[in-house]
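Write out the 3D structure for:
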Amino acid sequence: MRLRTAIPSDRQILEYWDTKPHVVWAGGEDDAFDWANELPRDPPWRQLLIAEEADRPIGFMQIIDPKEEETHYWGDVAPNLRAIDIWIGEETDLGRGYGTEMMRLALERCFSDPDVTAVLIDPLARNVRAHAFYQRLGFRPVGRRMFDEDDCLVHRMERRAWSVCAYRGPDCL
């Protein structure tokens, strides 16, 4: 698997994935992307990534610096954090280990910056499968929080937890 920068020609697949029931259900009310405008942009605080398996797009990830992100979605947060959004595009690709591998690659990207202290995620509170997935990877719940209309259970992975997991090898993630 590889993560590559999303480009304007990915717009069609991303808009298609946005219509998939499992993506809509997990995305919440405020999760709509304006792909036409966002894909050409390259702000320094954000990475938009396509996950590919054998050159086939299977999912999307966004990694942001929540302190620098322009809408201040995360509010007033400490510096040196990252936040991740992730989804698998096709239902047939769920449950095949792709999400785990995507998260492993994303966490490596995040923690390759020695200043990054932790990574945040914000799955919807109702998405208990996502909570179990993230907790299995080493994220810990820090509390419920409303992001506009979305009731989320914020999770956090500290650098130390990632380091321990990375030390244990690829079976940890």
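The longest strand covers residues 56-64.
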